[in-house]
Amino acid sequence: MHYPFKEIEENWQKLWQEKAVFKAAAEEGRPKYYLLEMFPYPSGKIHMGHVRNYTIGDVAARFKMMQGFLVLHPMGFDAFGQPAENAAIKNKTKPDIWTHKCIAWMRQELQRMGFSYDWEREVSTCDSDYYKWNQWIFLRMFERGLAYKKASSVNWCPACETTLANEEVVDGGCWRCHSPVQQKDLEQWYLKITAYKDKLLEDLGQLKDWPERVIAMQKNWIGKSQGVEIYFKEKQSGEIIPVFTTRQDTIFGATYIVLAPEHPMVLEMIKGKPQEKEVLKFIAKVSQESKVVRAAEDVKKEGVFSGSYAINPVNNEAVPIWIADYVLMEYGTGAIMAVPAHDQRDFLFAKEHGLPMRIVIQSQVTSHPSTASLDKLGTSLRAGKSQVEDMTEAYEGDGIQVNSSQFNGLPNQEAKLKIAQWMEEKDIGKIQAHWRLRDWLISRQRYWGTPIPIIYCPKCGIVAVPDADLPVELPKEAPFTGEGGSPLNKVKEFVQAKCPKCKTAARRETDTMATFFDSSWYFLRFCSPKFSKAPFDKLEVKYWMPVDQYIGGIEHAILHLLYSRFFNKFFKDLGMLDFDEPFSRLLTQGMVLKDGDVMSKSRGNIVDPDSIIKKYGADTLRLFILFAAPPETELEWDDRGIDGAFKFLNRVWRLIQSHHVTTSPRHQPQDLNTVKKKMHATIKEVTEDLENFKFNTAIASLMEFVNTIYHSGQDEEILLNLIILLSPFVPHFSEELWQRLGNAESIFRARWPKYDPAMLAEEKVTIVIQVNGKVRSKIEVPADISEDRLKGLVLSDEKLKPWLQNNPPKNFILVPKKLVNIVV
């Protein structure tokens, strides 16, 4: 018979809710701990990824409660977004009805797992009392010039008549209808995240408890590059073409330059030239391509010659100007210099189109050669061409400058600075930093999102909706067909508005905000979810923030975390909070796999949490998820592991059920002393492992402890401590056993046990070592050391080397805890 998990889990979930065990309220003078997992999109069903993420957080939250911290552990739903709108179209219902139905179901599933959430703090981003504050935040940014509108090229599906995020472009087509995606210029709303680029980069240094991988990904996304903007000139007009590079050491090897098809100089440059028709055809073709595809490294690069030339300012050489798909106007200056001998992408393009190459960094020269030898080398490189023709790939490493005028002979890293300074002196370039980070496009031509609080007046222009008129609510009735763009455009009552300034008939903005806006500040709303005067109560935020531990998937390492950091810095500038970073410590959990692949419907390898809970209970599922792998690594699902976890819990159940406070006659007092020592060692190990999120090794220690109890006996203190140590991992199970041992109050009101260092001290003995009966050394070892371990220590004793190195031992004579005599 197994333990009655169904009745136990349902009973304790009900009692926890009735007694508000996990309700959090600020209490001055008491240490706080804000534990937060990234809130889910309400798809209606939790999957094993959810189970893992939220179980990891729940263990940490319960552990901190029992250590005396006042724990804030909230949950909500990231409820806006395109999937709900598409589901509503498919199921012939409304997005709000569909979403709230999914939220109700998901809330029920999360409660079945027994997570320690303060459900009174629940927020849903699709509720108007939440998105009202999205609009308020947008208006504060608009007032400060951080929210602005401009024309931009976007992914556009002509069949769905809507923009697509880069992630929604699959193999060049719309992910939903598979129509070829085009590029279209639209007026879009942006947030000026670039205004905070320096702080976003600098403050990464404060995040000592973030994974190095995430820090590196954010640094790369912000992408500060130190280099030179070089002033090439179009040969015919003399117009400057600025090109940014971080490899100014290769400037003498530039044999052509490349412009983006969207570059403003292109149309004028090709006018009247024989290549004009071909270039225009190429530009039209590229305009239909996704920028994601254009920038992909594994896609063949295409281009055409413009018919024009540019003058390289360092040697006055005329180099051809090409137009190519892999150069994007959004990055750098929209123009690059191409050095095919020292850049692999340029090398492949040059090989494809028969463009020249020139080596300017020579890897073979490893020391400073004489001037004569360098001149000879340069001449051979210019005349012979054999080395260039023999190249099978670009040389991108360090070396010595050649074919680089007065910089010949310098190591290229040293030449970088000297060339940059020389170009500034000659006014042919400027040392500067470029950033990869671009302003954040938040416009979406969708219904199910936060309406952008802007009105367009024919007299006053762009006018902000007054705070008093917030929220601008989504209309309840809108036509959902999936065609013809945003349904909001077709709701006259929504579109038609009056100008707040002049009262003239005006038009309301019909774009909605990207859902990343909603999730960029939800952690602050959790501090005071019912606060009606501002997005959050400053005093509550001062008490609870920053988040002490944030947990979520690595897929959010860049955008969500970067946007949240941006919002936090904006709020600080408004005087609404006083800290730089919202998340002190970050853990990115690994994915759950089955048969080596990520679980998915298409692969047919999904394991439904519901089926596991019905068969084994939530606590068994929690225990397996935590024991199978460390949180940061991928977890391979194993049905045998679930069975093993269930058997372990039943073993503990039988142990407690058969408990007698008095020691069994077959167990002597010295046996209980052994168990007590093991208990204190286990308290130490489990506590340290929980602090460091090493849940699998903590559970292994508890399994060893249970084995010791079975072999050597127990008393009430031992069993009570065992149950407390188990409680963060298997809370329902532990609550039940805790009560059965006579405790009226919840186990999560108990204090986490502390170990006694004296009980950890090993008993030591001194062993005298003899060789052929004569004392040669002494060593101190644990009293319970094994014979094999003792022999190993003896043979490795340095003092015995003169007697043993040429005389292998024939025999060991052991006197336990006293003496070793080696016969050689």
SSE map:
Blueprint: H1 5-18, E1 32-37, H2 48-66, E2 70-72, H3 82-91, H4 95-112, H5 128-143, E3 147-157, E4 162-164, E5 169-170, E6 173-174, E7 182-191, H6 197-202, H7 212-222, E8 224-234, E9 240-245, E10 256-259, H8 266-270, H9 276-287, H10 291-295, E11 303-312, E12 317-324, E13 335-338, H11 344-353, E14 361-362, H12 371-384, H13 386-390, E15 400-401, H14 412-425, E16 429-435, E17 440-441, E18 443-444, E19 454-457, E20 461-464, H15 492-495, E21 496-498, E22 505-508, E23 512-513, H16 515-518, H17 522-525, H18 538-544, E24 549-553, H19 559-573, E25 586-589, E26 592-594, E27 597-598, H20 609-616, H21 618-627, E28 635-636, H22 639-657, H23 669-691, H24 695-712, H25 716-726, H26 731-740, H27 757-760, E29 764-771, E30 774-782, H28 787-795, H29 801-804, E31 811-815, E32 819-823
Parallel strand pairs: 1-2, 1-24, 10-12, 24-25, 26-28, 29-32
Antiparallel strand pairs: 3-4, 3-7, 5-6, 7-17, 8-9, 8-11, 8-16, 10-13, 11-12, 14-15, 18-23, 19-20, 19-22, 21-22, 26-27, 29-30, 31-32
